[in-house]
């Protein structure tokens, strides 16, 4: 991931509501959630939710697909692992043993497609 994309992703996550939406979508896995369900689960008004989903989508942190009349949103696990990798790229000043636990989390996130959530939660 390049600096510009990382800054865009971090900017999208630098809002409590958007961060909460993203974390919830990471937790639900690759099956995702319909916009209406996200609104009900978060108590975010539909117009505010639409704006937040648009910002997360433009940052490539979430993806959407149409299922019938619903738009289903899910986390983009590739972008998430790319962002984590970018943040860890120069970690620990050449002492990788310091970052051991963090490296394990990044490795698990890189392999995650939404079906490995219990592994990430126990890391």
Task: Provide a descriptive summary of the structure in words.
The chain is mostly helical. The chain has 2 domains: 3-76, Winged helix-like DNA-binding domain superfamily/Winged helix DNA-binding domain (Arc Repressor Mutant, subunit A, Orthogonal Bundle); 78-122. 61% of the residues lie in helices and 11% in strands. It contains 7 helices and 3 strands; from the N terminus they run ααβααββααα. It has helices at residues 3-13, 16-28, 35-42, 46-58, 77-88, 100-111, 117-122; strands spanning 33-34, 62-67, 70-75. A 3-stranded antiparallel β-sheet has the order 1-3-2. Helix 2 (16-28) packs across helix 4 (46-58) and helix 5 (77-88) packs antiparallel against helix 6 (100-111). The two termini are 23 Å apart.
Task: Provide key terms for this protein.
123 residues, mainly alpha, three-stranded antiparallel β-sheet, 3 strands
Question: Secondary-structure map with pairings?
Answer:
Layout: H1 3-13, H2 16-28, E1 33-34, H3 35-42, H4 46-58, E2 62-67, E3 70-75, H5 77-88, H6 100-111, H7 117-122
Antiparallel strand pairs: 1-3, 2-3
**DSSP strand (E) fraction?**
5-15%
- Report helical residue fraction: 55-70%
Shape: elongated
Give the number of DSSP strands: 3
Order of helices and strands: HHEHHEEHHH
* Relevant CATH superfamily of the largest domain: Winged helix-like DNA-binding domain superfamily/Winged helix DNA-binding domain
CATH architecture of the largest domain: Orthogonal Bundle
Number of helices: 7
Determine the N-to-C terminus distance.
23 Å
Query: Which assembly state applies to the chains in this document?
Result: single chain
| CATH fold naming of the largest domain | Arc Repressor Mutant, subunit A
Q: Give the C-alpha Rg.
A: 15 Å
Average pLDDT, rounded to a whole number, is 85
CATH class of the largest domain: Mainly Alpha
Q: Pick out the low-confidence regions.
A: 118-123
């Amino acid at each position: 991931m390049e600096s510009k994309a990382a800054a865009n992703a971090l900017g999208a996550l630098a809002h409590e509501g958007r961060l909460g939406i993203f974390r919830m979508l990471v937790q639900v896995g690759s099956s995702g959630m319909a916009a209406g369900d996200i609104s009900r689960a978060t108590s975010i008004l539909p117009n505010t939710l639409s704006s937040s989903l648009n910002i997360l989508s433009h940052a490539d942190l979430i993806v959407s697909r149409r299922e019938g009349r619903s738009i289903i949103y899910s986390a983009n696990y590739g972008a998430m692992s790319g962002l984590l990798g970018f943040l860890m790229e120069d970690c620990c000043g050449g002492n990788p043993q310091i970052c051991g636990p963090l490296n394990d989390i990044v490795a698990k996130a890189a392999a995650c497609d939404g079906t490995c959530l219990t592994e990430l939660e126990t890391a």
